[in-house]
Amino acid sequence: MSNDPPAIYLDRIERHYLQGDDRLDILKGADLAAWPGQSVALIAPSGAGKSTLLHIAGLLEHQNAGEVFINAKATSGLSDAARTRLRRTEIGFVYQFHHLLPEFSALENVMLPQMVRGLNKRAAEQRSRELLGYLGLKDRVGHRPGELSGGEQQRVAIARAVANAPRVLLADEPTGNLDPRTSERVFAALAQLVRACGLAAIIATHNMDLAARMDRRVTLRDGRVVELE
Ligand code: ADP
Ligand code: MG
Q1: Whose CA is nearest to atom 18 of ligand 1?
Q2: Is 36 a residue whose pLDDT tops 80?
């Protein structure tokens, strides 16, 4: 596994925020790599910088220093258009709240990113049905988000995140809003996809039971990533 390049590699990431005259140093040289098929749990207290790290890893936010490599390719010199393209094809993102489009069905929510990328409707629909079926939602494809339970909504959000077959899956407390049993089901779906698709996954979570079942566990300590155990 380690002989291949990591699917994602964060190299000495620094990030600060300016608040009036104050400078908040959140990330101070954070390093983290994840390889295909590997799940990494990111466990740290609220305010430690988990979301900041994931947003930078997902090319949603710029770091102040350091480099994000996706499939061994440096990203900091890319144009906004190239970043967007790379994000669309190589990175899937799951948030704590599903952010599904309320006016569209589960099926359409999963089809849309594929059509944005240029896939024809028929192929997008076929892949969406397969993915939703795989996540146990075969009988829910026509439902709008408001007609789905919290766990079902999150599974649709996961299907959408991997719709374009990314190499990297980033999830920011994906079960943070769910009861324990539902969390378990959503996590199982995530773990199954990580293995089946050979994804490199970084998942921020407060759930120690779920974290224990991932391949690695890391935390953020004083702005750096520290391996646990
Ligand atoms: P976590 O996800 O671990 O709870 P975050 O990455 O959301 O932590 O935030 C880390 C710290 O950075 C917090 O103290 C937060 O207040 C601060 N922060 C995050 N985003 C901004 C911003 N846009 N402007 C100023 N401070 C921010
Ligand atoms: Mg957060």
Answers
A1: 17
A2: yes
Residue 16 Cα to ligand 1 midpoint, Å, equals 9
Residue with tokens 């995530």: 190
150-170: pLDDT as tens digits: 999 999 999 999 999 999 999
Structure tokens at 198: 């050979």
Ligand 1 atom closest to Cα of residue 53: 6
Nearest ligand to the CA of 95 is: 2
Residues in the chain: 229
The number of helix segments (H) and strand segments (E) in the chain equals 7, 10
Two tokens, residue 48: 């430690």
Contact (CB, 8 A) for 160 and 191: no
Residue 43 has pLDDT above 90, yes or no: yes
Whole-model pTM over 0.85 = yes
Q: How far is CA 10 from CA 55, 85, 106, in A?
A: 12, 19, 33
CA dihedral 168, 17, 211, 174 (to 10 degrees): -70
User: How far from each other are the two terminal CA atoms of the chain, in whole angstroms?
Assistant: 20
> Over the chain, what is the mean pLDDT?
94
Lookup: tokens for 32: 């983290």
Distance of alpha carbon 120 from its chain centroid, rounded?
25
Interhelix angle 121-134/150-161, nearest 10 degrees:
130
Positive or negative torsion for Cα 57, 102, 191, 197: negative
